[in-house]
Amino acid sequence: MSPPASARVAAAHPAFVERATGRELDDWLSYFEPDAVVLTGTESARRATSALRRVTDAGTIVFDPNGHDPVRGPRRVDGVEFVFAPTLADLDDVPETGPAYVLSGLLSLDVDRAALSTALAGLDEYRAALEQGSDTDGLVHLSTGLPEGYAREWDGLSVVGAGAEAGVGDRPLVAFDCRPDGLVLSNTLKPSRLGLRALDGVGDTRARRLREAGYGSREAIAAADPTELAAVDGLGESSTERIVESASAVVDGRVVRRSDAPLPADDPVFVDIETDGLSPTITWLVGVLDGTPPDGTYRSFVQRDPDDPGGAIREFLSWYDAEADGRPVVAYNGWRFDFQVLGDHVVEHCPELEPIWDAMDRFDPYRWAVEQDNAVLPGRTNKLEDVAAALGHESAGTGLTGAAVARVYRAWMDDRSPETEPDWDRFETYCEDDVRALATIWTALDESGRVVSATSTDAGDGTTQGTLSDW
Question: What positions does the domain YprB ribonuclease H-like occupy (predicted)?
Answer without folding.
Answer: 269-444
